[in-house]
Amino acid sequence: MKKEDLQIAVIGGGAAGFFAAISAKTHHPEAKVTIYEKSDKLLSKVRISGGGRCNVTHHCFDIRELVKNYPRGERSLKKAFGMFSPTDTIQWFQQRGVELKTESDGRMFPTTDDSETIINCLMNETRKLGIGIKTKSNIKSLKRMEGGYELRFHRGGRIAVDKVIVATGGSPRASGFDWLRNLHHEIEEPVPSLFTFNMPNETIKELMGVVAQPVSVKIMGSKLQSSGPLLITHWGMSGPAILKLSAFGARELNVMDYNFKVLVNWTGERTEQEVRDILKTVEDDHGKKKIPNVNPFGLAGRLWEFLLSKLELGDDMIWQNMGKKNINRLVHLLTNDEYQVEGKTTFKEEFVTCGGISLQDVDMKTMQSRKSHGLYFAGEVLDIDGVTGGFNFQAAWTTGFIAGKLK
Predict the structure, then answer these.
(1) 0.85 cut: is pTM over it?
(2) Using CA atoms, how far apart are residues 296 and 294, in angstroms rounded to an integer?
């Protein structure tokens, strides 16, 4: 076979699919590369991510630290990030005229604050390289043939190709992977990974929009805990602290059927004794002041008042009249405030699942299947997922770039 006869099919028109196709055409310029997308929308997650600004990557350049943000895939990604890291991502976009900026929490966005900048960059690159794009092309089956693969489509028709890169993203149901299971791949059961906690019977929802940071959050009866900013919503609780907990606890919380108690330490990582000492100082220094008027942990005013109202301390009570019993109650509330979670809310188009192709079936240095030669994987179709903050996109760029080498 002459080199220019090489036919490469990339299945999936998202971030990983586009990056894999661009990488494939760059590393194999004579090949014919085509992206097949089942819907009529391309790069839809890129468009809506980060509130329409596209959180491209994260300002974390130490690979040992970077991999800690992946509940699934941490060990396997070490090698991969050594081949294409956040630094490489930044340079790749820079070389194509897209400058990125870093926000205070480390998330990186285009300086335009517009995801269309990233979409236009990827679309321009595919046009420049002559990569084919076919939408409304839903793959029904993938069959191993001599020297390559046969792709069959739901709408009828079939094509023969030499190499296939699967970048179809996560699936909410295991049945979404049946066509890959037919090639003897092990599928890790998919369950939601990034979600907010619903608290239908908790009055704290009345404080929607209030942010507390940093807080420490634990799931009662488990070892799960995380810290960071917490956002109170009209459903319950969200924000990085909760989303991180939902990612690292994805499987455990699924087993609990999303019904559990969460403990919030509103003072961050402070111990009960540290909180007690601070309250003692307040008592000594501000004894004659009303309790609501001294907010020693800098909590949002509405949140501080809400917590005090839970203890039913009168608005007129002053600090020196608190007494040991009330101080103990306040210490416990600030460090172990308990809320009942009943259900979750996932971000529909932005959903992230854990689960997918088992990493034992994939050579992470090449992204090639260990079960089927000439078949590669990229992005969330793999059992890899990151916490919020640009980590899922970084995994998509990295795995797409490596898969496209077709090593």
Answers:
(1) yes
(2) 6
